[in-house]
Each structure stands twice: as C-alpha cells, then as structure tokens.
Amino acid sequence: MSRNLNKIIWIAMIVIVVVGLLALYSASYQNTRVSQKVFFDQLILAVVGLLAILGLSYIDYRKFYDVAYILYIVNIVFLIGIFIFGHYALGAKRWIDFFGLNFQPSELMKFSIILVLARYFSDNKPKIAFHHHGLKADFFSDFLIPLVLVVFPALLVFKQPDLGTALLLFGIFIVVLYASGIAYKYLVGLFGIGLVSVPIFWSFMKAYQKDRLLVFLNPNIDPLGAGYTIIQSKIAVGSGQIFGKGWLSGTQNQLNFLPERHTDFIFSVIGEEWGFIGAVFLIVCFFILIMTSLDLVERTKEKFGYLAGIGIITILTLQTVINIGMVLGLCPIVGLTLPFVSYGRSSFVVFVLMMGFLLSLGRRRTIF
Questions:
Q1: How much is the pTM?
Q2: How many CB atoms lie within 10 A of CB 284?
Q3: Phi-psi label, residue 100: left if phi above 0, alpha if psi -120 to 50, beta otherwise
C-alpha cells in the first residue's frame, strides 16, 4: 500500500513541477524585471531536485534524527550571520552567500524546526496531557523548552524582516505540539498569548508590512502603491474566466502589469492564461499531494517519522493555501512561495528535502 501512496505522491509532485515550469516560462517570457534565466535556473533545479528526491527516498529517514540538533544549530548560526554578512534585496536582509550562491536560511529553518521538534517530542513524550490540575514540572520540558526552540529563530527571522516565515514557524509548532499529544488547554493558552501579543508585534513591524495588512482589508486605499499588486493579481485571475487566455497570451502578464509574477504571484499567471479550469487543476494536484502524504504519515507508527511528516504536511498545506489566498486577495501579502511552482532556489531545495523525507518514510514502511 505504501508503494502505491509513494507513486501517487510522485505523480502529483511531477505534475505540479511541470505546471510550475510552464507558468514560469510565461512569467519570464517578456518580463522587463527578470530575464528568462530564471526559467532555465528552475528547469535545472527541477531536474536535479527530482533526482535528489529519488536518492533521498532510498536513504533511511531516521538519519535526519541523528542530525536534527546539528542542523538546527547550524541554521541558527546562518540566521545570526545574515545580520553580519547578509545583503539586502527587496527591502529585506534575508540572503547570505553560500559557496557563491544566494541562500535564504529562513527557508531551511522550516525543515530544521520540524526535525528538532519531532526529535524532541519523540524523545520526551508529553506528560501534561495526563495532568488535570495545577502546573507540573513537566510544563517546562513538554511546553516551554520546545517553545523556546521555536521563538528564538522566529524572532531572528522576524527581524530580517520576514513576517510570513516567522508565522509559519509558529504554525509548525502548534500543529506538531497538538500531534505530540499535549493537553488542549495549553494550545488554547498559546492562542490567547498570540492574540494578546498582536499589538506588541504591530509596534515592531516595518511600515510596508503594516501597509500590506491594511491593504488586505481595503486594496483601494493605496491602489498605486501597496495595493497595486493585489489589484492587478485579482484582475489577472478574473480575466482568465473559465478556460483562460492561452499560454503566453495573458495581457496582465505579458504587458508587465503583474509585479513578482515569477515568484509569490505566479498563481495569477496560471489563473489568467489557463483560467478557472487550469487553476482548479493545480489546486486538485496539491490536494492529492497533501492528502496522500497525510495518509502515508498516519500509517506511520514510529514517533519521529510521524511528527516530522505532520510538520512537513503542515508547511506544504499552509504555504499552498496562503500563497493562493494572497493572489486571490483572501490573505494578506506575506511573501510566501507556492511550493514547486514559484521561482526560488532556497524554497525549492527545502521542499526537495522534505518530500525526500516523506518518500523515504513511505519506502521504509514497505521494508519494516
């Protein structure tokens, strides 16, 4: 059965990658901001990445257990190093040169957090789920310590600034915490703390981040500034109607009305050129990928593999939903890529690692 699940995951993933390459070719075809080099970069990355996923699927996923803390510490060093050696791009200091390549440590931190939380909770099974009165000493080991493991890198990421990824790290924490068996009251308390902290975070946010949130509520308050991208994106998707305008024929795309259409807003290119049918087709592919992965993970009895798998599915789901939501004006613009579709080396590499882990999980289940 696991072999069949792996096959479905492979098919869905390859289809998504191919759709992404077609959309990226169109997005860079007459792009005045970037050249078609981004397409060829992604094409090479896709071929190498799929081969890497195949290779990772043959490696015992428990090898990641051995390096979880090491990877986490190295990634923390990278995040700190950004403030010393990193460089600015698009108003943020998120990139660092790594062997001649620009790399975004916050992307790798997503996988690092998943692995370190999965290892921590697999080594320390939460006991506070079984306590019904008072604060026990287990509160510190089962809740506070893993919270600190997430808060520290999340603050470093938020400082870059990268609000979207910082929030994703907390999203991973909440879901993995729930999957580990912790008591509901601690999750409710965590949500309460989050709500109370909103005014504090608002005061530390950059002006453009505040503008993005305000524009989400009303794009027309700044139609030529912060609201421009979302307005053009909605026009593009709506103009695609049922069947789309055809590949390379989207006017919003080809006439350069859509900024960042090769990265965060690539779904708008798909909506305009392939219409409602093409957009739904891609969404269905993601749905199949996510649900099949969840089916695979739920069959896993080993705690580390189960929790890490849940974390990976969480990231895959959140980024897909939030990215498409951004394009449609249903979510604030937080700068998250669409997995395997948007252009971005760091993001692509991290999803390669995560999908390799999932497929290894499925393959090992056929051996045990």
A1: 0.89
A2: 12
A3: left
Tens-digit pLDDT profile for residues 109-134: 999 999 999 999 998 765 544 344 44
CA distances from 218 to 57, 244, 259, 328 (A): 45, 27, 19, 13
Q: How far apart are CA 258 and CA 265, in angstroms?
A: 8
The residues with which 87 forms a beta bridge, in sequence order, are: 95
Please state, in angstroms and rounded to a whole number, the distance separating the CA atoms of residues 61 and 311. Answer: 14
What are all long-range contacts of 288-295, with beta carbons under 8 Å and residues at least 24 apart? 288/8, 288/12, 289/9, 289/12, 289/13, 289/16, 289/316, 290/316, 290/317, 290/320, 292/5, 292/8, 292/9, 292/12, 293/9, 293/358, 295/5
Beta partners for 208?
A: none
Q: How many residues does the chain have?
A: 368
For residues 138 and 141, give the distance between their C-alpha atoms in angstroms, rounded to a whole number: 5
253-274 in b/e burial notation, b at 16+ Cβ within 10 A?
Answer: bbeebbebbbbbbbbbbbbbbb
Q: Render pLDDT for 38-79 as a digit per residue (tens, 0 to 9).
A: 999 999 999 999 999 999 999 999 999 999 999 999 999 999
Angle CA(338)–CA(218)–CA(91) in degrees, nearest 5? 50
Reported as a single tens digit per residue, the pLDDT across 238-258 is 888 999 999 988 888 777 777
- Torsion (CA) 168, 174, 179, 183 in degrees, nearest 10: 180
